[in-house]
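Posting for a labmate who doesn't have an account.
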Amino acid sequence: MVYAIDISENFAPAKITTIATLLNVVLPLLTTGAGLIFLVMALLGAFNLLTHGDNPEAVKKAYGTITYAVLGLLIVIISFVAVRLIGSMLKVDILPI
């Protein structure tokens, strides 16, 4: 009975040979993670805004949470665009769309 599969012939190891290859792997993961964090923070701020509507200090804190979530998402989008622009100026194929 065989429980293992021989992958030495049919399975090439993953190779990251250039920075562009590394960025092609890492940047979409980070962007997706940032989007999920934005979603959680925005929902948390909205929930706090709805549940603490009579407390002015809590409402201010909830608006701050939503504001920082939007600012964080804008920073991620701007940095993504900057990486794309730098890649196109240097003629490096980064993140084909």
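Reply:
Got it, the structure tokens are right above this. The two ends are 46 Å apart (CA to CA).
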